[in-house]
Amino acid sequence: MPLNIPGILVPFQLMIYPRLVIPHLSEDIRHLDFKALRKAGYRGAIFDKDNCLTIPHQDQLVPELQDAWKECLETFGEGNVLIVSNSAGTYLDAGGIQAESVSHHLNAPVLPHKSFKPAYSCISSVRTYFSSLKTPLKDEELIVVGDRVFTDVIMANRMRKSRISKSNNPLQMSLSCAFEKSGTVATEKESAGLVDTSKANGPLAILTTGVWKRESMLMRYLELNLVNAVRKWSKPKSDEPLDSDTARFVRELPEPLPPKSWFAKTLDRLKRT
C-alpha cells in the first residue's frame, strides 16, 4: 500500500485543530439506530470498507452486519449510501474492477477518487457525488462511519471545519491543502473561509468499534490514546458546534453480540479513564 500522504500530514494540522480527531459517537454498527438518525435529519451515509463493512481485501459484507446493513440501505434510500475506501475506487483499483465488485456485493455505489482519505480533494469528490443526486444532500445531512481516526473521523471533521472556519491564515491554509493531489479552487476557498458558513456545519463522525480483523493494531492504539488525550485536555472553541444527545442514535439489540474485539475493549477502557 503506497504512503497515504494526506494521512501522514494530519498531525501537522492537529497542532492547530487538535479536536479534529474526536468522533461524535463511538459504537458498533449493529447498535446504530438508522431510523433515529433519519428522523434527526440525516439523510445519507458514507461508509469505509475494510474492517468496517468487510474483511480487509475482501468484497463481501461480513455476515454479522447483514441486518444492520439492510436497514441502513432501506432507511436512507438508493444512492444515498456511499462507500468511500482507500482501496476500492482509488488509482490502485485498476479499471475500477474492485469498486464494481464491492458495489455488487454491498448494493451501494463506490466513490471513484484519486487521493486517499482524508484529502480535501477526496472530500470534494464526496460533495460532488451527493450534490449530483436527484435530491442533493448537504454535508450536515450525512453521517461518516469508519474504523480509523486519521482517515474517517478526520475526513468528517474536516468537512465540518471547512464550513465553519473563517480564517485566512496562510499557515492554516497551507496545512489544509499542501501536498494533496488534485487540489481544487473550491478546496482553497474552503480553507480561506470563503464558503457559505451560515448553515449547519457538517457530517456526524461515527467511529465504529467493530473491527473484524487485527490490522495496524499499534496505530489504532495510538489513535485511540490521542483521542482520549484531546478529549481530556482540550476544550471546544466557540465556533465548534457540538452534537448533543448522540446516545439517542444507539439502541440495544435483543440478542447478545459476539464477544467484543480487542479494539472495542481498548476503546471501552479509554472511555473510563
UniProtKB/TrEMBL annotation:
Q: Which GO terms describe its molecular function?
A: phosphatidylglycerophosphatase activity
Can you tell me which residues the record assigns to a coiled coil? none
Signal peptide residue numbers: none
Pfam families attached here? PGP_phosphatase
Q: Which InterPro entries match?
A: HAD-like_sf, HAD_sf, PGP_Pase
Q: What is this protein called?
A: HAD-superfamily phosphatase
Which lineage do the record's taxonomy fields give for this organism?
Answer: Eukaryota, Fungi, Dikarya, Basidiomycota, Agaricomycotina
